[in-house]
Specification:
935 residues; alpha+beta; Neuraminidase; Leucine-rich Repeat Variant; 5 domains; 6-stranded antiparallel sheet; 21 helices; 39 strands; iron; Cyt_c-like_dom_sf; Galactose-bd-like_sf
Length: 935
């Protein structure tokens, strides 16, 4: 009787009362009707009556019923999908023989979990995306209602029963990364900064917030923003979307550009430290072939035949974004992967040995977790669905609310699955009124299932979870070194991270001994990277490892040595050349990528010689693409465009200047040249410098007129930065562009015209600058938190649904007029007080064409929505306006508008002249707008 009652929509009070009354009648009739078939007939009749009373669903207006996306759709009234209890859901899972699943943390303790991570004591941090898809219009998606909670299993019974809210009131946080003792890194949606949160008093709640790094984020649909910051074995931090990696150093956070990872929700690594990125809309892994820091290599046939076909259990409801064309009949399951989330290369020790190194990821639309077997042939990897021949998957469920969005190798050696247990798993952009998906959502009332969430443990017969709970945060560094030999990859990774973050050089002898003498190859690898992270790696050790009998060690030695080469040890060049002749194909491929990454002299000839000696398919492919790189593909919303040919020439000229002149004091890699053994530097680090990446006037003025004295309270042995004003404007522009873009920084390039303007304005500067005084002369970016108010003549939020304003609507497309550009359209910002304004920057992105819908394997026909012609006006009162410049023509990408300092409280950009060509329906769009000035 219970299952009939739960299958109806009892949320509405009138229906609930009616059902309760009906249930009483059924119970009464059960006593007085003796024949079972009559009781069954009565219940069936009642079910029919109540189903007939449900709302009728119709085809949206204008839809052709013969359209492939709608053809054959069942629009009959349906009983709403209702959440099951945790125990009931556990019975709906289908696993291979011997495997079992059990809950470890569920609602109401947590709500809508999106990801998990563990600190050194095995405490589990849960990313709770409490604002995600609370209705079909994604209302309140950007409200500060999400949180990061922390949980532990204090009584060691396998259930996480004790928790605290580590950080509350977050706006759709993008990731959670434990970062040492009682500390995590995270950031919010539509933001640019990563913050470090620390619990300093031990109450389980963060009470200290520090800026970790900036220029890290992007805006847009919450499914298209960066996510999953991940601490790699190479001691760099990676994330999805972003084509760069960052790393904390004693002199700040530095960054390096990488290839495009094309990922959305998931980063993990294997035992060799190679990162695996998970796609989103593609439904398949995105980049995994080679380490992402070496750029992109296009490899055909990476996925085995049939890989894109999911084999989920029958869920009946056919709620597929792409319509009936993507529905397998008659069971209503998905017939082609369409969305994926979360990933893990299993590296634990409490599941069968044959799944170690296998790749797992979730497909929440198909309600499956897939197991992948990576097969490497001649250096190239092909992915195979382990259960494809059985037309099955590793984990399936017949519960339509099962939504696997993350998975992880756990401290206890098993695997955990994060189940958001949610009605809708697609963001509001794809659930608009009139779509197939919206029709199904309303038919089954999926929008009503919110605020739940479950985390599960996968176990196996005869392999009990590891009950020895980790206590690494409380252990000595010497003990942490021993954990590098543990059979559970999670424990090795946690130990390595803590060794590096502690900066405890007393571990160096033990680590060196482990690298040289341990019989455990994996321990040797992670000890090697621990030395690299501590800055204690020696060239002599690397050169010894390059002759090791293990190809895996030779590969790791090549990768780790790159830090030494970048710091100036060019003696390794001979080793890199020798490694191109290694008998092992994988070592040769790594040597090719290392030579490319470091841009060693005579690169192309060396690569060609290696290809001539080794005919393996992987060597041929990598070699050919190094010698003749394929054209960069349009990365759409998941990557940033590379520098143009002209911009690359600017940076290359600047690199020559820097290496010939500046590197002597600032270091080959921009980290500063050490001055003796006391830890002092000859000159400040430029890599990862927020000063360098801020307004370009700072670096230009320093190079033109020099600087003396302390910088941020620190002194340097070089004493002064000499004036370079005798150099040409182009010379200054080139070297500043290189420093801002080529030394672990990510800022705009500089033009000779910008240098000329600064030179003219500072002609009266006769002495060197002092740092504190210079900061007062450099334009300051006026931040959103300063109290900006934004209005516009036309506003069409590109985020479908949600609470947005013209300011917060800087999504991937950014703020947009939504309609064709026309003269007189304007975008206005009111400042909190009067400023001396000097500059406006904005990015004019590519947009999706109006009405365009995503289709698999179909190129995105982007259009350019930059303002064709505009002026900038300022005002003190918002009524009387003055133009500050002649009409400008906008350009694709970054637009910089500079003008003489003007006192203003209001500033607006207004379209002028003929905006677009006849027949073009192109809106005006902007994102990442910045205003500079001084009070």
């Amino acid at each position: 009787m219970k299952k009939y009652f739960l299958s109806f929509n009892y949320r509405k009070p009138k229906i609930k009362i009616a059902l309760l009354f009906t249930l009483l009648i059924i119970v009464f009739c059960s006593f007085i009707i003796s024949k079972p078939q009559k009781r069954k007939a009565l219940v069936n009749q009642l079910s029919i009556m109540l189903t007939d009373s449900l709302p009728k669903v119709k085809l949206p207006e204008g839809v052709d019923p013969n359209d492939e996306n709608w053809k054959g759709i069942d629009l009959a009234p349906k009983q709403p999908v209702q959440p099951l209890t945790v125990d009931e859901e556990s019975k709906r899972f289908l696993l291979p023989p011997g495997y079992h699943i059990q809950p470890i943390l569920t609602e109401p303790a947590i709500q809508q979990p999106g990801a998990i991570a563990f600190d050194g004591n095995g405490r589990m941090y849960v990313l709770e995306l409490r604002s995600y898809m609370l209705d079909a219009d994604s209302k309140n998606e950007l409200e500060p209602t999400s949180r990061i909670s922390r949980w532990e299993d204090k009584n060691n019974d396998g259930v996480y029963e004790t928790g605290t809210t580590f950080i509350d009131h977050l706006i759709f946080p993008r990731f959670v990364l434990p970062y040492g003792k009682d500390c995590i890194l995270t950031m919010e949606s539509d933001a640019d900064n990563v913050y470090k949160y620390t619990d300093t008093n031990g109450d389980g709640k963060a009470d200290k917030k520090e800026l970790f790094t900036t220029k890290y984020g992007r805006s847009g649909n919450v499914e298209h923003q960066q996510a999953f910051m991940y601490y790699g074995m190479d001691n760099w931090l990676y994330s999805t979307v972003n084509a760069f990696r960052v790393r904390e150093t004693p002199n700040g956070v530095i960054r390096e550009k990488t290839g495009f990872n094309r990922a959305q929700w998931g980063v993990t690594q294997d035992d060799d430290g190679k990162l695996w990125f998970q796609g989103g809309a593609s439904g398949v892994p995105s980049y995994f072939q080679f380490p992402i820091q070496y750029g992109n290599f296009e490899v055909p046939n990476e996925l085995a035949k049939g890989f894109e076909v999911p084999w989920g259990a029958a869920v009946k409801i056919a709620d597929m974004q792409g319509g009936m064309d993507e529905v397998r009949q008659p069971d209503g399951s998905l017939n082609r992967v369409t969305g994926s989330a979360g990933n893990d290369v299993f590296r634990g020790d409490r599941l069968p040995e044959n799944i170690k190194g296998q790749y797992f990821y979730g497909e929440p639309v198909a309600r499956i977790v897939r197991q992948i077997n990576p097969v490497v042939t001649e250096g190239l990897t092909t992915l195979h669905n382990v259960y494809q021949d059985q037309k099955s998957e590793f984990l399936r469920s017949t519960d339509p609310l099962f939504r696997p969005v993350d998975m992880a190798t756990a401290p206890d050696g098993t695997m955990y699955i994060v189940d958001m247990y949610h009605g809708i798993i697609q963001e509001g952009q794809w659930t608009q009124k009139g779509t197939y998906l919206r029709t199904k959502i309303e038919q089954y009332q999926l929008d009503k299932v919110v605020g739940l969430g479950r985390i599960w443990r996968i176990t196996y017969d005869g392999k009990e979870r590891d009950k020895n709970q980790p206590k690494m945060l409380n252990e000595s560094t010497a003990t942490l070194v021993k954990h590098l030999e543990h059979p559970n990859g999670w424990r090795r990774d946690a130990a390595q991270q803590l060794i590096v973050l502690r900066k405890d050089l007393t571990a160096v002898p033990a680590l060196t001994a482990m690298v040289l003498n341990s019989k455990n190859t994996q321990a040797r690898i992670q000890a090697l990277w621990s030395l690299e992270g501590l800055g204690a790696l020696k060239t002599s050790l690397v050169q010894k490892l390059l002759k090791d009998s293990s190809p895996r060690l030779r590969i790791q030695a090549l990768r780790a040595s790159e830090t030494l080469y970048k710091a100036g040890d060019k003696s390794l060049e001979a080793n890199y050349t020798a490694s191109l002749n290694d008998p092992n194909t994988d070592v040769v491929i790594q040597a090719m990528m290392t030579n490319k990454f470091l841009n060693v002299p005579d690169l192309n000839n060396k690569i060609k010689m290696a290809m001539a000696k080794n005919k393996a398919a992987g060597v041929k492919l990598v070699g050919e693409q190094i010698v003749a790189p394929p054209k960069t593909q349009n990365m759409g919303p998941f990557g940033s465009p590379e520098l143009s040919k002209g911009q690359k020439e600017v940076v290359a000229r600047g690199a020559v200047i820097y290496n010939e002149l500046c590197s002597q004091c600032h270091g080959n890699n921009g980290m500063g040249t050490p001055a003796g053994s006391g830890g002092k530097l000859m000159a400040p680090a430029l890599a990862g410098s927020l000063r360098i990446q801020s307004h370009p006037d700072y670096a230009i003025k320093v190079i033109l007129h020099g600087m003396e004295g302390a910088i941020d309270g620190k002194t340097y042995t070089a004493g002064v930065m000499a004036s370079m004003k005798d150099q040409s404007d182009e010379w200054v522009a080139d070297v500043v562009s290189y420093i801002r873009n080529g030394l672990s920084n990510d800022a705009s390039l500089i033009t000779p015209q910008q240098v000329a303007k600064v030179r003219a304005k500072t002609a009266e500067q006769k002495t060197m600058y002092q740092h504190d005084k210079l900061l007062k002369l450099v334009p300051k970016e006026i931040q959103v938190q300063d109290g900006l108010k934004v209005t516009a003549s036309h506003t069409a939020s590109t985020r479908i649904g949600g609470n947005v304003s013209p300011l917060s609507a800087f999504t991937y497309e950014g703020w947009s007029t939504g309609i064709k550009q026309e003269k007189g359209m304007w975008y206005q910002i009111e400042l909190p007080t009067v400023f001396d304004l000097t500059e406006i920057n904005f990015n004019a992105p590519q947009n999706f064409p109006k009405g365009w819908k995503f289709k698999p394997n179909t190129p995105i026909p982007f259009i350019q929505t930059y303002p064709r012609e505009y002026v900038v006006e300022t005002s003190l009162d918002g009524t009387n306006w003055q133009e500050n410049m002649k009409a400008q023509k906008g350009t694709e990408g970054d637009n910089t508008i500079t003008f003489n300092a003007t006192k203003a409280k209001f500033v607006r950009i207004k379209l002028e002249g003929n905006t677009v060509k006849d027949g073009e329906d192109i809106p005006w769009s902007m994102r990442q707008l910045k205003i500079y000035g001084q009070k």
